[in-house]
Amino acid sequence: MTHTTDTSLDDADFPALVAEMVADQAPRVFAVVLEYGEQIDAQIAGWGMALDESAYVTTVDGRTQYVLTEPENALKYFPSPANTSAYLVWATHPAQSA
Known about the structure:
The protein is α+β, with helices and mostly antiparallel strands. The protein is built from 2 helices and 5 strands; from the N terminus they run αβββββα. The radius of gyration is 18 Å and the shape is elongated. The mean pLDDT is 88. This is Immunity protein 35.
């Protein structure tokens, strides 16, 4: 998706317009977390990003990647042995959580 305007922008306005466009279209980042027991231990098994109409996830070692129709489908590809739960955790940028 592109952003166009009918008005002429001076050089100082263009970077702000581009930054706004990037912020509006940025994907959301998530982690696939494996939790062992009931809050005994956890590890990040994969990282993903959700786009408008699809999602992408990769294992933390980068050896396996998946293109998905929605982020929750990533859980199908991370096995959960007995007493282990897999779930998504949405990442927030430190500036967003302040």
